[in-house]
Amino acid sequence: MKSTETSAGSAPDVTSIRIRVPASTSNLGPAFDAAGIALRLYLYVEVARKDRGASNIDFRGQDAHLVPCDGTNLIWRTMAEVAEQSGRQLPSFSMKIENEIPITKGLGSSASACLAAAAAADFLCGLKLPREEWLKIATARDGHPDNAAPALYGGLVSSIAGERILCSRAVFPPEWTIVAVTPEFELETKKARSVLPAEIPYRDAVFNLQRVAFLISQLSQGRRDGIREAMKDRLHQPYRGPLIPGLQEILDMDDEPGLIGRALSGAGPTVVALADSCENDIAENMCRIFRSRGLHAEARLLEADNEGLAVTVPE
Q: Who contacts 133 (Cβ-Cβ below 8 Å, separation ≥6)?
């Protein structure tokens, strides 16, 4: 099947599109709610207009048992909200979803879903929205753009939330590996947020500011020196550590060949490591710590996605 890149709402004669949205890892240690990296792990959504009949969703892939296929589905619900806010009625559609992203595990599944929904609603309703509007839609539903921005634009993206969302993108080193280790452990984002303090000491703010500035500069240049230190954090990981068995032990592991740095991915419980060699050994050592706490863990060796969300027209 051939496909070509398109704007979701730009071709009225097109009856279906395929949307590919990458997963993402955010925070990167000190860059809390401020930066993330797109990953080559995807949510695929194929949506087609229907002339008649009820809308329907067919969902397959990772964590399918967690996903409803009716109007309560996050993608369906967000599409309906986008249509309503645009003064349109969502037409009947048929949707096939293939998902590779673990749901509610800290790899940006909800941001990817909301971006896919924005692109699908744009297509179905012929809205012709700029992609910046897709980001606003996803950010409004996800609460912050640190996952949605890299998923949309690809690569390493720093972002500022506000009336206007500001983003700065850099290519993440394609030769590096992002080792993502996900324990079989449920941690609600709401609970992970609830343990964060309302105020932090001044010295902790300075600690993180120094590391964020250095981290983004080094990553943007593809330089590994000092990143292990730069990925240390005092704003969220110390408070979330007690919620995730083994997290602090993983973050405190001694340096090993190939390791560039480690961090909690988003609100967790996935933990990520940046590596330029020995990826399997690093993954096994992280899994071993989770096993010592009675938790099975799945390791994924991923590359950065430097392209971001793609919309294609099946031919």
A: 118
Question: DSSP characters for 166-196?
Answer: EEEEE---TTSEEEEEEES----HHHHHHTS
Residues of 246-283 as b/e, b for ≥16 C-beta within 10 angstroms?
bbeebbeeeeeebbbbbbbbbbbbbbbbbbeebbeebb
The answer for residues whose C-beta is within 8 angstroms of residue 162's C-beta and 6 or more apart is none
d(CA 163, CA 161): 7
313: tokens are 């027209």
Neighbours of 218 (CB within 10 A): 17
Tokens of 111: 């941001």
CA 66/CA 69 separation, integer angstroms: 10
Rounded Cα gap, residues 60 and 161, in angstroms: 33
Give burial (CB, 10 Å; 0-12/13-18/19+) of 52.
exposed
Determine if the peptide bond prior to 174 is cis (ω within 30°): no
In the chain (315 residues long), the average pLDDT of successive 10-residue segments reads 49 86 98 98 97 94 94 97 96 98 96 98 97 97 94 98 95 98 87 92 98 98 97 97 95 92 96 98 97 97 98 88
308: closest CA among 8, 12, 20? 20
Six token digits for residue 20: 């590919």
Domains in the chain: ranges and CATH: 3-171+304-314 (3.30.230.10), 177-302 (3.30.70.890)
Residue 207, both tokens: 């600690």
Q: What token pair was written down for 36?
A: 């993330």
Q: Which helix (H) or strand (E) holds 218?
A: helix 202-221
Rounded to two decimals, the pTM is 0.94
